[in-house]
Queue: 2 jobs
Job 1
Amino acid sequence: MSFIILKNIVKEYGPAHALRGVSMEIQKGQWVNIMGPSGSGKSTLLNIIGGLDTPTSGEVFVEGIKINALSEDDLACFRREKTGFVFQQSHLVPYLDAVENVMLAQYFHSMADEEEAVGALTRVGLEHRLKHRPSQLSGGEQQRICIARALTNDPVLLLADEPTGNLDRENTKMILELLKKLHSEEHFTIILVTHDPFVSQWGERVLMMEDGSIKSDAPINP
Amino acid sequence: MRSGFYLFFKKSVSRRKGRIVIAALSVTLSVAMVSGIIGMTAGVGAKLGEELRAYGANIIVSPREGNYLAQDVAEKVSRIDSVRGVSGQIFGTSVFRGQPIEIIGLDIAKLKDRGWRLQGKWPQNNGEILAGTDLRSQFKIDIGAKMHLPGGDIGGDFVITGFIERGGTEDSALILDMPDAWTVTGADRQFSAVLVRAEAGRLDEVVQQIRRMIPQAEAKTFRQIAVAEESLLRKIQLLMVIVTVVILCAAVISVAATMGANVLERREEIGLMKALGATKAQINIFYRAEAILTGLTGGVAGFISGYFFTQAVSKGAFGSYVPVPFYIFFISLLFGLVISVTASYLPVRNALKYNPAVILRGE
């Protein structure tokens, strides 16, 4: 059975159709990139897979759990137990330092543990920036905190929405190298949304979206 | 509470201390007004009771015509059944350092158990007197000061043994034992009024007897005076309840506006918490804790401010301080909590409805 199964997902915002009957499957440990122009529905699809949003109709299964049938609290539980999110704007809490930002995710999961948070930041190469606040860090470093925060609770699914959208090429490459290392060593399932062709070449599979539908689904040649 | 709560709560509060101070200040002002009003109401009520207890009497007999009653009026009244005690008083004026000064003559020995605030000693001998506390600053006199008071044929020389404070006319008068007062006022063996303590429940009967027995005297129960004061007090209390309700409503709106702005400012943070898997209850607890902190801070500060407000008003209106019951401290805390928790209810409820996907997209 596939790790993620989407069956005929429709998402409507009033009269606007964000997704028009999307169906697909993703295997465990796969790195899938979703590409497409603005408004094509790629972020909406990612949010629905991660339980941040719910479909108007259709079914979503992650690791056998039908998440579109979960209550609000069960969905929150699904997010903290199974997923890790990385956003384009890193969405770090400005008054917390790097370690505390990671500990915040641990707090909602179970309990804040400074040692584990330091370990997560060390994994992303930020052991020298532990007590810095987001405003004292570069965009690339902020995104690495965001990745550490996403990974600290050992999720099975890493969801990244334009994680390099605000970064220059050098920092983009650094983030992608980091994701590649984590993916090869720890075998996360990664779904990454991007509109950057350079970014879309990383990973194992790329979906092209247009007007709320998948137009193509192809493997990436190494 | 989960491990880490205090860390994040402390950081969040210290980051937003400006807003929290503004919210706490709104609560403080409201609680100060409310606790001040309750303190005044309770204090004035206690003060009225204290006044009546201080007299220890429930009937007053005064001359229907002229200034004085003959001494035998007191003797006649004391013979009436149901009368348990009689005490004559005399009021007059004298002059000290060229200024008129009020004289109150009474049986000083009976004052000791009536709760008058005294600085110094009770007079023991003839020629020793008490002075109202206001005279101390007016004439720059202290305990042991000697005074010559003209009056009667020759007047008299006196020594002040203490200062008394009651919040009434006594505070600006000299209190003399009866023989000394007769010397100064020249009203030998007469009284301005006779205070009578009769059995409760037979007051009207005693009043009628006094009126029949001494036609030249007017007798009234203190209850008549008390009832008039009680009626006034009730009107004041009603006004205070209305003012309290208005203040509470204004406070809730004001704190809700501050909390609303606070929540709006934290939309992204709330969206992030939800994305990280926080339940509504977990997010709720941060806001409730903030509201409780604001309420408790405002409650304590409001009680302290209200206490000083009460005393300032009381000193201005009654000339003395009123006792503020300690239970008002707990009422203040309760009001603080009610205001801040009620005010935070709607903003927090709305915050919990945010769709994280929408907020994190920056919409």
Job 2
Amino acid sequence: MTPILSIEGLSKHYGPVIALDNVTFSVNPGEIFGFMGHNGAGKTTALRVLLGLTPPTSGRVTVLGLDPTQDALGVRSQVGFLPASYALPREMTARSFLCYIGAMFSMPRDQAEARAEALITQVGLTSFADRRLGGLSTGMAQKVGFAQALVNNPKLLLLDEPTSGLDPLGRHDLLESLRELAETQGTTTMFSSHILSDVQTLCRRVAILHRGRLVAFGEAEALKAEHGAKDMDTLYLTLARREQR
Amino acid sequence: MSAAVSNVVSNPLLSPTLWWLELGRRLHERKTKGLAFLYLGALLAAPTLLEKPPPHLLAAVQSWFGGDDPFGLFMYVWTDLAMNKLAVLTGVAMGAGVLVEERADRSLILFMTKPVTPAGLYVLRVGSAVLATAGLYLITQLIGLALFSAQIDGFKPLAFSISGLVHVWAPIFATCLSALCAVAIGRQLGAALVSVLVLFSLVGGAFLGVYNPAWADVLAFNPFTQSVAGVTHLQSQSFGTLTGPVVGLIVLNLTLLAIGARLARRIEP
Amino acid sequence: MNPIPWTYVRAELGREPLAAMGLGAGLFGAISILGTCWAVPRLPEGVLTVLSLSLAVEGLPALVLVNTLLAVWFVAYFVGAVVVLRAIPAPRAEGGLDILLVKPVPPAVFVWSRILPALGLSAAVGLALSVTQVIGLWGFLGADLSIASVLGIGLTTVAIAIAQLGALTALTARTTELAGALGVAIAVFMAPMTPTSVFIYRPDLFPAEGVGRTLFVMPTNLIVHSGVITWAWPVVMIVGVGLAALGLAWAARRVVVG
């Protein structure tokens, strides 16, 4: 199977700081892939490289067959991205914002409006669609954030800490939405998180980063068995402690 | 193995929908509404200010701009006191936050991860700011045309309109310069401070070449001097006298836009 | 009452790159002042007469001073205004103010610690430019215009700028949008100039003679009353700082949004 996303020997240095150190893994089409690591492990940096927002210091990255350093716009036109830290434009409404994002994907007006309407229904924003985004609760804002990542009907979703800040119900809904997208549309998701229970619930294969280095990659169950861990928490702690020694 | 080539060909910057939504977004901003209020204030205040001009000022303006009617004084006051100052305010309000304001409030990442380059996003933002600026200015001129025709004796609608079509490039220049400062400095307030200092200095010197013709050639570099050509050539407004300043201002603004777009590539979300 | 957290206050006072900002703005102001001192006397006689009549000041030294004072005022105010806007409206707009306001620092201490550098910077730049003004006007100094009066008038302008910064702090204490705060900053600067604009074009709206004619016409009023300003500027400075303190006190009451 040709991977939808592959990273080979990726390193990224910011001056003396090594954010990513020779990282190699790949993601298969249609899967929900867990990308784990503590805060500052390098997950966000890796996602920025994948989107062509920052060039790698060395190594090679391919997303949907494209090289983001050469064709960042081509990658972004087929990928949906939800950042870990962001704010919505306060003076827009969910409807106008989603319509605007649609236009950024070159959709004609009627198509952008229809897509916005469909997403408003899909993520459960109907009652809030015409409210100013500045006044939305964290959960509602995250729904808008998730919806904007889906505007272009992406083949690949890159989600950076999508469940942090959400209440249990919101988390459940988001994880269910991702499962549904994978099952009904074959959408691939790279699910970056440090909430290990979410990864365990959702992902069959995972990559674990620790201080910029890849410490594990493969089937979650196989990794747990290999390291004698009963769950993802134990697996992660075992690997992290081993690295610290 | 070489990477595949993207099949995405359409450039969102060519999409009228995106421009229309971007302009709508700009017009709904609180600062745009505040500026509209100020332009309205200028329309209402100008006739009152000129109801009874002092004789020394009337005589001076007539000697600077020629003619023997008080219309020259009106044009001088309208352009220098009202529209030049509003040009600075508009430029700083519309331009000094381009990209950097969104970066500061963390909304830029949502736009920069879409299929638009930072330079393209800069052009989109400055373009909508310029359109809103020009819209505010020209609507004010249109209302002024109707209002002043009824209120001011000896008002010359054609000269007023032509002068406005030249001077509209002053707030556009202020917007483009402030936006350039924004991406060059990287902070909205720093950009605003530099823009305010530079623009008010240029406005202060807009008519200096008229006061002292010996300096006219040296001061011609001032974009505000060029933008008031409709007033300084009030008695000889013609295609020949006004084309040069307008073309010069358009070229200058395009140059500022191009430099800003280049600098925008350094802006990271 | 909680004791003042001095470590916090010291950290706040050292937060902004005041030296670089002051140097840049001061340099710009000095060039403007010296340029004005060079340019105004070279204007044609007719223009100087119009300026003199329009602003109700007599003599070339006074005309030059009117113009250089604008530079002192403008630069002293705006360099402080940037620090004021970075102190409260900018972090509020960026969503980072609440995290500071929930700490056990009284709002008054918070506001004072953040705004004092703005007032100090404005005063320092204003003082430097007032001295530059004396240097620029050196050739014009004489019986009508002494070093003390030029310096006194300059520092009175700085006192006004400081009072305006206090007002700006109060007016923008709850502003959530930086562009709006910027608009308020420009409006606060221009407000005292409004009577001047009206005076130039409609002098008939002002009393025909007496103190009232130019009382509110900035900066003509400072020059017309230079005799008093020469010795009274410290009083004006105290009043200016007092008004700024009132502004800060008001801002401290408004900064925590319940």
